[in-house]
Amino acid sequence: MLLKISGEAFCASGGFGIDGRELEVIAQEISAAHAGGCQLAVVVGGGNIIRGAALAEGGHINQATGDYMGMLGTVINGLALKERLDQMGHPARVLSALNLTSVAESFIRGRAIRHLEKGRVVIFVSGTGNPFFTTDTAAALRATEIGANVLLKATKVDGIYDKDPHQHGDAIRFDRLSFKQALDMRLKIMDLAAFNMCMEHDIPIVVFNMKEPGHIAEVVSGKAHGTHVAAE
209 forms bridges with which residues in the sheet? Predict the structure, then answer.
């Protein structure tokens, strides 16, 4: 299975950087899921460290440079998560799409699969290694490459709604959706490139609230949480 975690999950609400308590929550949740015996890979975002895209939109830097800066932010989060998982007795490896051999292994598909087969948590960082692609696309790409059975998208809400539940009290949450339904309703689940890749390769997507204790382990074990998106 592949778990996508946003960079914001690593910091307190409205905060910045890595909050030790939030890191502990993430590591504990992944630890519980990994203890269940699944092969688990993780893609982390880097928005808590830097938002290069925002700098680029303001005209301060070139977008490609901003995207590379964001990739380096994911490396910081990945290293922190690896360190904590190792300390908890769950061996982890960080595989980077950028060449950063001093701190991470370079991504090679066969190497990633071998680590998973040996029971290690694999943490993918640096996105796809290319600018102009989001970490959602990186998650869909890595899920396809390792042959993941499902892509788990951890968020701050408990599933997919027809509109923003934080702004609309009458927002309706979906338990299940087909890829076609999600496209027809123009629901913003992931960026279009990532969503299409999952649809093309028949990789179901589960969107759930990871801030609820035990949710990652429960979703990994097959318990219904959030919204499940799959083929017809």
Answer: 155
